Amino acid sequence: MAGAAEAGTRDRASYPLEVSYCGLCSLPFEYCEYMADYEKCKKWWEENFPDIFEKVMKVTDGDATETDEAKKRQKRGGRGVIKAKKQVEKSKITVGRVSRNKKKFVTVVKGLETHGVSLKDAAKLFGRHFSCGSSVTGEEIVIQGDFVDDVIDLIAEKFPEIDEDDIEDITNQKR
Question: Which residue, 10, 157, 174, 2, is CA-closest to 96?
Answer without folding.
Answer: 174
